[in-house]
Amino acid sequence: MADLTFENEARAAGYRIVCGVDEAGAGPLCGPVYAAAVVLPEGCAIPGLDDSKKLSEKKREALFPIIEEKAAAFAVAWVDENEIDATDILSARMKAMQLAIDALTVKADFALIDGNRDHGKTAAICTMHRCIVKGDSLSASIAAASVLAKVSRDRFVVEVLDKRYPEYGFAQHKGYGTALHREMVEKYGPCPAHRMTFLKKWGFGA
User: 119-154 burial by CB neighbour count: b if 16+ within 10 A, else e?
Assistant: First the structure.
């Protein structure tokens, strides 16, 4: 279960405001990639908090307002499909995470980043940071960020993209490359929300 060990280590090293950062939506064929940054107070405990991928949608939705309430600061940011196509998904992920850090109402002087990458071709994490492999399962603040990013992106796909382009069934697959999604792209062609650079590997795009 995720805890505050890494946050406490950073504070012990002299950093005052430590945030956890994660992204959601790197793999889907459409829509933005989202990221969140969360600063949890010292000693903060949120029962049931874990990597968002290990939680049910119902559990993520239940945790979302609890995280917002208990966090000392939080922010959500995104990079849209056009910029993903113009750069690359790794750069877009890094940019979204840095945008989330920059949007915090309390300026973080250290960031715990999920994964082992801190830069792409056109964007990088510029806040002092530490990358943690499987950080969303180990760090409470990264786990909290993973929930905020995942829920925020899912809500956008369901409430905006699915209503705008109902024929693709976005509410069902959240934009991931399921059989249904591929079938709908084959039937209707891509919509403006699709990442054209992602459709090549599925045999759709140019």
Answer: ebeebebebebbebeebbbbbbbbbbbbbbbbbbbb
